Amino acid sequence: ETGVTQSPTHLIKTRGQQVTLRCSSQSGHNTVSWYQQALGQGPQFIFQYYREEENGRGNFPPRFSGLQFPNYSSELNVNALELDDSALYLCASSLQGRPDEQFFGPGTRLTVL
Amino acid sequence: AQSVSQHNHHVILSEAASLELGCNYSYGGTVNLFWYVQYPGQHLQLLLKYFSGDPLVKGIKGFEAEFIKSKFSFNLRKPSVQWSDTAEYFCAVTGFQKLVFGTGTRLLVSP
């Protein structure tokens, strides 16, 4: 157990819908990073949030967006879902500037039909 | 840009066999290297990491990895695997504000 929690565990959506995934960071951590892990692939960095603002982004389109709240928890929103968005979405919490000390949550499995 | 290559996508071993999983990285600066493990149905866990110093790094559960700078490699080893080592293993390198992962190696250990 890392202290990082994610909800929901599993989610099924249809193409074109919107989805919100949630993450609660480990106590004391102020930074949340989101990763997408497609089947048979390693996790890929989506973006990071620090002080309630996006603080770095990977190669993902704008329909992937996020929020961070004052208690450091975070949401990942995906609009206009596509079939290829089916994946395990991982969040990781850390202190700012410490990607080497990221602790991962169990992930949310998103299936887009 | 940073990148990580894992050459073995699937590995099948019998219990007590020795394990070596390959990892090569591409990064021009100072590297921090990691091996993570993902057991079935569980979250990603850190096995070991290398920042500097002794290039032979020992991690949890009997795993170790050797950083060879001249070969840009950070291979994971275990002398004798157990059935409970069945999992997916990811090599990673730190980039700016993020981890860059390889595609993973799925290890199946048969009893």
Please characterize this protein's 3D structure.
The complex is a heterodimer of chains A (113) and B (111). Chain A is an all-beta fold and 113 residues long. Helices cover 0% and strands 50% of the residues of chain A. In chain A, strands 2, 4, 5, 6, 9, 10 and 11 form a seven-stranded mixed sheet that branches. In chain A, 36% of the residues are buried. The mean pLDDT of chain A is 94. Chain B is mainly beta and 111 residues long. In chain B, a hairpin with a 2-residue loop joins β10 (87-95) and β11. The model of chain B has no long low-confidence stretch (mean pLDDT 92). The interface between A and B is medium-sized, with 24 and 23 residues.
Task: For the structure shown, list the relevant keywords.
heterodimer; A: 113 residues; mainly beta; 4-stranded antiparallel beta sheet; 0% helix; 50% strand; globular; B: 111 residues; 53% strand
